[in-house]
Amino acid sequence: MTLTVCSRVLSGYRHLCKFTVVKQTTPTSSDSRIFCSQASRLVQSYDFSERLSSAKLIDGKAIAKEIKDEVKAKVQKLKDAGMRPPQLTVLLVGDNPASTVYVANKIKAAQYTGIESNTVRLPISITEQELLAEIQLMNSAPSVDGLLVQLPVPQHIRERVVCDAVAPQKDVDGFHILNIGRFCVDEKSFMPATPAAVMEIIRRSGVETFGKNAVVCGRSKNVGLPIAMFLHGDASHGNYGGDATTTICHRHTPPEQLKLFTKSADIVITATGVPKLITADMVKEGVVIIDVGITRVPHPHDPGKTVLVGDVDFEGVSQKASLITPVPGGVGPVTVAMLMKNTLLAYTKEIKFPLHN
């Protein structure tokens, strides 16, 4: 079933295309598996030739720096007032290469903003109960403001149990069921970093969402679904609600229906992990494209090497889009920056959880 709910540029991509200047990856869930029949186009000659594009490339790195600089200034004010800085603790289970890189990026961002950080490395053999005990230890530590368990966790550990074990007032990932529920009913909560990053990119890029048609490809509980909730949300409630008419597509949406939805969309946000899922013939002129997908594929001209690509046929779609995010350098850096913003928010204790504080 497909659900419809009514309600800045990068100089470093010249090897791909030439862009006019404006200002401005997280793996997703099971939707990264075969998403409609279009997944068969995986890694078909990603053309890196130079072409003139009308699209303005949204510079996620520049937006991320703006956000981190804002957090940095606030943290410095705390220090100047004689207060301790916020503290972020990350629990890393095992030695998954991608997770190790993601955690390193988060720690680097924390150092930049002045947030204290700590990475607790745990063996892949740790039991669920042992991990839960470690989480409880951090929950009860007054010096820990933000706590996250880097996902994915080993298969013998239940992800939902782990996410709900993190105290909601320290849940800077926004994955606890209380934060999810409060977010869905427009109450103050910690927003998942990637959906928050998408909305921050839209807001800082001056993209109008009110009354627009938006399509979200991917329905993962941590990315696709929250993005759709953001877009269709009622802004009159004082949140980042986009007041857009939002359609959610997923791997069971028939290809011809997917094209119909994306062709009429003013904004397309895709988070599936399927390269070239969205092609030029599937979008209209002037569309805004936010590509959350990230996949490592063989380099088309250099055997033995790989490149990171998104869900969108970048070269083709950039000929028609008004704004487009690159992969890498788009949503990813902003996601990390929003995590720093959440950590500062956890420190201030502005969000109250009466049964947990």
Overall description:
The structure is a single chain. The protein has 357 residues and is an alpha/beta fold. It has ten helices and 13 strands. The chain has helices spanning 60-80, 97-113, 128-139, 159-165, 177-184, 193-204, 224-232, 255-263, 314-317, 331-348, and strands at 3-5, 18-20, 52-57, 87-93, 116-122, 146-149, 213-217, 245-249, 267-270, 288-291, 295-298, 306-309, 323-324. The protein has an eight-stranded mixed β-sheet with strand order 1-8-7-9-10-13-3-2, with helices on both faces. Helix 2 (97-113) crosses helix 10 (331-348) and helix 6 (193-204) packs across helix 7 (224-232). The longest helix has 21 residues, at 60-80. It is globular and about 55 Å long. The two termini are 40 Å apart. Mean pLDDT is 86; it is low at 4-52.
